Amino acid sequence: MEKFEVFTAVAAPFVHANVDTDRIIRIERCARVARKDMGLWAFEAERLMPDGTQNPDFILNRDPFKSTGILIASENFGCGSSREMAVWAIAGMGIRCVIAPSFGEIFFGNCFQNGLLPIQLPHEDITAIQTQLLNRAATNDHQQISLTVNLIQQTIVTPWRHDYSFHVDPLRRISLLEGLDPIGLTLKSLPAIEAFEAQSKGRRPWIWTHPTLPA
Amino acid sequence: MTARTLFEKVWSQHVVENLALDVDLLFIDRHLMHDLGGGDAIFQIRQRGLKVRQPNLTFATPDHVVETAPGRTGGIAPWADDTIALLRKQTHESGIHLFDLGQNSQGIIHVIGPEQGISLPGTTIVCGDSHTCTHGAMGAIAFGIGTTEVQHVLATQTLQQKKPKTMRVEFAGKTPPGVAAKDMILALIGHIGTAGGTGYAIEYCGTAIEALDMESRLTLCNLSIECGAKVGMIAPDQITIDWLKDRPFSPKGDNWQSAIQYWSTLISDSGAVFDKSVVIDCSKLSPYITWGTSPEQVISVTQTIPLLEEAGSSVQKQAWQDALDYMGLQAGQQIIGTPIQRVFIGSCTNSRLNDLRLAAAVIQGRQVANHVTAWVVPGSMQVKHQAESEGLDQIFKTAGFEWREPGCSLCVGANGELIAPGERCVSTSNRNFTGRQGPGARTHLASPEMAAAAALAGKIVDHRNF
Ligand code: SF4
User: Fold this and answer.
1) One domain for residues B394 and B372
2) pLDDT tens digits for chain A (215 residues)?
3) I want to staple B347 with a disulfide (CB 3.0 to 4.6 A). Which of A202, B74, B410, B411 is the partner?
4) Peptide bond connecting A64 to the previous residue in cis, omega within 30 degrees of 0
5) What domains, with CATH codes, occur in chain A?
6) Residue B263 resides in a domain
7) Residues B12, A203: Cα–Cα separation, whole Å
8) Cβ under 8 Å to B: A residues 159-198
9) Domain assignment of residue B100, given as a range
């Protein structure tokens, strides 16, 4: 997994509540598009015109937000389906950080599995950042709309000098900082897993016996 | 000993290791898999040189991409057949039990888990699908996971999980006639919103829950994720035990005895503390139906669509306006009388035998409106066969419904079965998101009886006086 330490990029306001993962990536793309191409289909219904060309009205298609790396989203971002392809799609667009007042829980967890950092900030802070970005967009100066997200210090530095701090669960933070592989990490606990299984077989034999197993 | 909630009792039984404050390595008793990504997940861990750690605790079925037309043998398109073939090959080579197409046990994973007696009280159950919360109706901690976590469970039979907070939702009183479990849970979502349960494990309790049959409890728990909660559970009782007895994978003999003894301890102790509490007065409920593109955009069928001024914030107001535009509806308008073109009775929410019985009772002896295309997609082969043995299929077919094969079908359209752009569908499924049933499709979520009545009337009606 790609490490996440300090990341500076253009941030775009995405002012929609309850953005569901169906909206981020359509189900038929999940089954049929290779992971590396998933970004091409992110927000398909609003980003692309029916003929497949880019919709010029969609915020992430417009200057200066075309090169967005940080999404400033609204309440309950990524709710709905568990499809991890929603994270792959967003990552495929070059976005490595989503900041919102709240997230769909499964989406939130899936981000950490893919080197993408989801950050929760209070509603007022989000609204303030979104407003700043919208106001500064007219200048078309990327520096004016770029944020620096620092996971080591857990801070967000803005060009308008109002900086924010945030908090990430310690385990998840370390995994992201070091780009750790969760399976590899858990396999280090194999003895504990084996002990649990042995004890469970005695305590709850009914979990372990069923018709496909020899009696 | 301190009083504990049902959730805490089951959680603590599955902690392999404490990893950090409130984060545990959790043992998984049941890993359910389906065709959408299931075969690939097994392939990926095998590529890494890892094995499926507990194939005997893992179960799979094709449901998302399978065709549901009568006589189907696979998917509609070659890519779907490839997906199914990959699941077949990978489960076979790893020793995982597959409930395959053509077998009497195939169906939507969240229907067959309980039906086969795989989903048991006091277990941890995961699946790469957000509606895994359905199985919480059995008294299990059941939740949906992403692709990476699916691989993690395959390789280690565990997951790193942050312990959620707990929420108690009491459904108090008695529901009036014609009000179903679907209406109860839609009422809750309307009340707390689609993010109201985020970060919580919900326990549903109260007299109206105790009165529900097992299948209705599954319907109710199915929509837990629609109020943001990964987990929604109900304490097992005699109804649960009677329902599980003699199912193919249920424990037998001495194992059954020791299991039910343990299950009887699975209740929240009196005095157990929840982080949040909500009470719904069931005597006031009526049939519900969604008007927008989020399950929280829901009203009683007798109400009018809310005015934009009633929105709680500018973001919500915008969301309502977008939803109305997409749905082709007006704020303040009656929902009753809205013409529809499609009806879908199916999905892991409402495709069990009892759902089909209730819908058939509405339909019996009447005809689907001329301009409506109506489908029944049973949740499993078993449901289908039982319904046929009761003659329900005949009632549906005579009325003009299509009687189809089990699968997810129009719930999400992953198999290519879609609602056309602009068409309006009353659906018994769980999500009315923009484009969920197909690009431009307009979805209204409701109970099977409401869907059945809409099919006959050709418009949205209150099934109680139809
Ligand atoms: S029926 Fe719908 S909600 Fe249920 S598992 Fe299938 S696609 Fe998901």
Assistant:
1) yes
2) 889 999 999 999 999 999 999 999 999 899 889 999 999 999 999 999 989 899 999 999 999 999 999 999 999 999 999 999 999 999 999 999 999 999 999 999 999 999 999 999 999 999 999 999 999 998 889 999 999 999 999 999 999 999 999 999 999 999 999 999 889 899 999 999 999 999 999 999 999 987 665 44
3) B411
4) yes
5) 6-207 (3.20.19.10)
6) no
7) 14
8) 169-171, 182-183, 186-187, 189-190, 192-193, 196-197
9) 6-162+241-257
